[in-house]
Amino acid sequence: MEACCCNLEVDVNGEETFMVDKTVITHYSNKFARLFGKSGGATGKLKVIFHDFPGGAEGFELMLKFCYNNGTADISPSNLFLARCAAEYMEMKEPVADVSNLLELTEKSLHEINYWTWSDVLIALKQCQNLLVLDCSEMVEKCLDTIVGRLVLASEASPCPSTSSTDSSWIRFSCDSKSTESVKTSFTRLTWWFEDLLFFSPLLVAMLVKSMLARKMDHVLISKFLLYYQKAKFSTSTTEEKSKIIEMVIDMHYDMDLSCVPCKTLFGILRVTLGLNISKCSRNRLETMIGSQLDQATLDNLLVPSPYGISYLYDVNLVLRFLKAFLRRGNGSVTPIRMKKVASLIDLYTAEIAPDPCLKISKFLALATALPDSARDSYDEIYQAMDMYLEVHAQLSQEERVKICCVLNYEKLSPQACLHLSQNKKFPSKSAVQALISQQSKLKNLLHVTPSTSSYNDSPCSSNGAAQKVKKDKTSEQVVLYAGNFDLATDNEKLKAHLQGMQWRVMELEKFCRKMQVQMAKITKSKASGNSYAKSLPKLCS
User: Does residue 473 sit within a domain?
Assistant: First the structure.
């Protein structure tokens, strides 16, 4: 370049200053053409200062080479995005004298991406990420689609049966060592690329996963990659960066088939978020995913410590949100089996947190009443939780105790639980009476079945017919099933003895009930305000 041609000084982002020929640059760049067109016939040296030139001095120098080489440049994967960004910034979009502009050169180079090596594609994406130009969506998506396409081909060439499983472990060890090595080799073939993509930013990973989902890649494999990425990046990330990473991991899992994401995995993600300030949207998505699989959770999964500033030992509000998500996700179509599993889990959880002295009655009742009555075959576990709660919260008023007892379905309490409740001083007297009445009613109903079952001892066919008929009566179902499982001719004596024992128990309960009536009558005489309750009590126990 001759000295007389260097009539323009260009400061690029404060990194370096270039002396260039204004005429040559203006010939290819519309940006410079407009700039100097406004300056009119200015003479002497001019100076242009760029503060945000993409790629800095390196990008500007690449653009200069194109201009001084008569519109030619060596475009490769290592400088493709650099050239593209420089061309767009300098508005080098129109051909000059039958010479392709710089933007066209980059597009031609991109068309040859199918011939690039795996390393070439990664180098291009790394440069793109360093330039912070992920908004070049067309070029970035082209590179990502190339990566996904090659991964799909690789997975099809080396299928691994374990990727279709939601088991937390991919490798199922075999007694045959050769078979085990074969599984390990298949596993390695499928995950060899995990390490290569760790330089991706969370935004680039999100774009990659979306492309994978569009290409129907195995969701289990994608989930494994996301968890591997999260774990690897956390070791060197700041708190803010960790929040962005885990938000991306949650949002990507939300778009997957949940049957491919184990409940254990979701609770693992939840544990990671406890110390991070993630967005409300991502947190809601995670809770919704967990709630939809709540029947697969364990008690340990639910024992999440309360957030800072909350007095409860465990995060009860979180579990209530899980329950809400479980019921909402089912849209009324949750199967009875799943509902019963969740009910059993919640009863265990309620019993676990009941001894917490800081647990408010409103939270306890919210847990106990969150599920419909049909979800429980037995109320024994919830009764035990109530017993512990009342033991710890002895300061509760009578009204509050009555509220708690209203949750119970006395018909679904076992005889042992009813007997325990009737003698439990922590519960209101009315609840004890209701328990006795319920138990007395059940035993009487069972005894009424005796004549109808004993008359069918002669014929097995008659016995089966009687069983089908009586089975419709829910109150006598236990006796019918007992008779159907054994030969009535041989076990008749045992059945009679069993029924006699039950009859004796009814008599004992009636005696206990009468004693309680007398005691309550004495109490009510000393309290004028209790007259109405004393009158109603004999009716309840009759």
Answer: no
